[in-house]
Amino acid sequence: MNPRPRCYVASPLGFSEAGRHYYADVYLPALAAVVEPVDPWGLTDPAEIEAADRDGTHRELVAAIGARNIEAIRSCTLLAANLDGQEVDSGTAAEIGYAAALGVRCFGLRTDLREAGERGAHVNLQVEAFIVASGGAIVRSLDALVEALASAGP
Questions:
Q1: Alpha-carbon gap, residue 118 to 116, rounded angstroms
Q2: Quick one: fold of 6-39+77-152?
Q3: Strand pairing of 105-109 and 138-139?
């Protein structure tokens, strides 16, 4: 039996209480049914943030988090990006661009009803171009994302 492919999970969902709830209780479990989710939100211990607040070492912590995320993306063959919001989160957009440049196949989930891109695009045209060029797609439901990731395989 083939192991599930590693999939970096790019999203801004960890920034809010509601987002964290959806991410932990709905989004990650759905993805885990077909891939091995690589969760960048789980790569930093809250104690590290408290220490940076206490010691004034935010610059060092930011560099360490960025390096962890780079290595996490490099360790994956797939990327699943949450594209909801008035505009795509800038960090998520950067992760997509980096992953696509490495040859990681990228998929996006856009359930937001608002328009967020140029005419004819689901989101910013460059973000969409990176996703499509990687061999992925933007889908409109979590079920469709799970199906796309399952079809992408290792």
A1: 7
A2: Rossmann fold (3.40.50)
A3: parallel
Q: What is the DSSP letter of 33?
A: T
Q: What mean pLDDT value characterizes the chain?
A: 96
Q: Which two tokens stand for residue 64?
A: 């360490």
13: its two tokens: 């969902």
Per residue in 17-70, pLDDT (tens digit) is: 999 999 999 999 999 999 999 999 999 999 999 999 999 999 999 999 999 999
What type of residue is 3?
P
Q: At what angle do helices 90-102 and 125-133 cross, to 10 degrees?
A: 30
Domain boundaries, the chain: 6-39+77-152
Q: Let me know: does 109 contact 127? Beta carbons within 8 Å.
A: no
Q: What DSSP element (H or E) covers 3?
A: none
Tokens representing 95?
A: 């992760």
Identify which of 7, 25, 10 has the alpha carbon closest to the alpha carbon of residue 84.
Answer: 10
Rounded to two decimals, the pTM is 0.95
